[in-house]
Amino acid sequence: MIVFSVLCILFAASVYCVVTPELYKSSITILIIPQSVPQDYVRSTISVKVEQQLATIKQQVLSRTTLAKVMDEFRIFEKERKNLDPEEVFAIMRKRIEIDVVRGQTRDSSEVFSLSFLHEDPKTAMHATARMASLFINENLKTREQQAVGTSEFLESQLKDTKQKLEVMEKRVKDYKMRYMGELPQQLDANLRMLTGLQDRLRTNESSTRTVEERKVFLEAQISLIGKSVPGISQDPAQSPEIELAAKKAKLADLSARYTEMVPEVIRTKQEVAELEKRIAEARRSDSTLAGEDPNADSPIPVSGTPLAMEEIRRMRAQLKAARAEIASLKKEKAEIRKTIAAVEQKIEQSPRREQEMISLIRDYENQKNSYDDLLKKKLEADVSQNLEKRQKGTQFQILDPANLPEVPFQPDRKKVMGVSLLLALVLGFGGTIVWEAMDLRLRDVRDFRLIYKVPILGYIPLFQDQQYQRERAMRQAAVFGGLITFTMAFSIFLLVYRDKIRTILNF
Question: What is the pTM of this model?
Answer without folding.
Answer: 0.46
